[in-house]
Amino acid sequence: MKVLNYREQESKQFEGDFVKGVTGRVLIGKNDGADHFCMRVFEVEEGGFSPKHSHDWEHEIFFHAGKGEVFISGEFTPVSAGSVAFIPGNLEHQIRNTGNETLVFVCLIPSGAPEI
Q: Does residue 62 lie within any of the structural domains?
């Protein structure tokens, strides 16, 4: 069993040519004995974005705070706190912050995929 505030979990910063202002944390994963899913939380700072990419596994995403856009199937769709997104495997996707506060979202992936 594990109960904690997500901010207590170790974080990893992502910065580069194709990613800007992203912090990620594995909240529940293989190290916790989770056999089927991995739960992660990402914070995207104002003006930040994840890399545009694709992979075999799906994502289930819940947007907790902020405003942004999700790129799927060639177009951006606005999201905000309370929005959800399902991204099937092998679709190019990206998330970017379009607001003036941190965009926070929880992302679930199947076990076996890279956790962060």
A: yes
> Is residue 116 domain-resident?
no
Given a contact cutoff of 8 angstroms between Cβ atoms, the answer to whether 24 and 64 are in contact is no
Question: What is the CB neighbour count within 10 angstroms for residue 97?
Answer: 24
Q: What would the pLDDT profile of 11-40 be if each residue is shown by its tens digit? A: 999 999 999 999 999 999 999 999 999 999
Count of domains for the chain? 1
All residues at 6 or more sequence positions from 24 whose CB lies less than 8 Å from its CB, including other chains: 11, 12, 14, 40, 41, 42, 43, 116
Q: Residue 97 is part of which domain span?
A: 20-110
Reduce the secondary structure of the chain to three states and give it as a string.
Answer: CCCCCHHHCCCEEECCCCCEEEEEEEEECHHHCCCCEEEEEEEEEEEEECCCECCCCCEEEEEEECEEEEEECCEEEEEECCCEEEECCCCCEEEEECCCCCEEEEEEEECCCCCC
Is residue 9 assigned to a domain?
no
pTM greater than 0.85 (yes/no): yes
